[in-house]
Design goal:
This protein is α+β, with helices and mostly antiparallel strands. The chain has two helices and nine strands, in the order αββββαβββββ. It has an eight-stranded antiparallel barrel. A hairpin with a 2-residue loop joins β6 and β7. The radius of gyration is 25 Å and the shape is elongated.
Length: 204
């Protein structure tokens, strides 16, 4: 009986040690994107110069597992698109054109969406550097295409801050106005097929 008791005690102790040695499994958390603090800046270039402006986030979420960002979905309010480098009548004309069917057709497609598909840490990234390579699906005008770009992602106890910038080929989303790829003889009225997006996301 004493021997049986001893064996039981040893087995119990072993199980306790194994349980203690097992790392605690992190629980994934979902954080909301702060639409007020997050920003999107667009820049489009043409032969004679460039224009830039902003688009607002409508909402979004990110998922965090421990200290790692594991996913995210970000919705952009295309009706909020503006231009910051023009004033008065010219500003109104450009913004109206951007909202028309020639460009983003915002009456039909009020929301654009970026959904993260995968993230890979960049080895040797230093403070202030981009920390991850991101692959995502970008949906504009109801059409979805993959985009890949490096991003700086900081996960802390208070939330997530992410910064990224990348180019988008507008012609993939049936935005062909002023594109030399589809129209000849545009001269100085030609508009670059790629436009740039700079994004800062704050989620809490």
């Amino acid at each position: 009986m004493k021997k049986l008791f001893t064996l039981s005690a040893i087995a119990g102790l072993a199980l306790s040690v194994v349980a203690i040695s097992q790392p605690k499994k992190q629980t994934a958390n979902t954080l909301k994107v702060s639409a007020q603090e997050s920003t999107i800046k667009w820049t489009a270039k043409k032969v004679t110069g460039e224009h830039w402006g902003n688009v607002k986030f409508s909402d979004g979420t990110v998922t965090v597992d421990g200290k790692n960002l594991t996913g995210g979905t970000f919705n952009m309010d295309m009706t909020s698109i503006d231009c910051q480098d023009l004033q008065g009548e010219y500003n109104g004309k450009l913004v109206g054109h951007l909202k028309s069917d020639d460009f983003f057709a915002v009456e039909k497609f009020k929301t654009a969406t970026l959904k993260i598909k995968s993230l890979t840490a960049i080895a040797g990234a230093k403070a202030g550097d981009k920390t991850h390579n991101v692959t995502a699906d970008l949906t504009i005008k109801g059409m979805t295409h993959p985009v890949s770009f490096p991003a700086q992602i900081i996960v802390s106890k208070t939330g997530v801050i992410a910064n990224a910038d990348f180019d988008v080929d507008r012609t993939l989303y049936d935005i062909k106005y002023g594109s030399g790829k589809f129209f000849e003889g545009l001269g100085d009225k030609a508009i670059n097929d790629n436009f740039n997006i700079k994004v800062r996301v704050i989620a809490k």
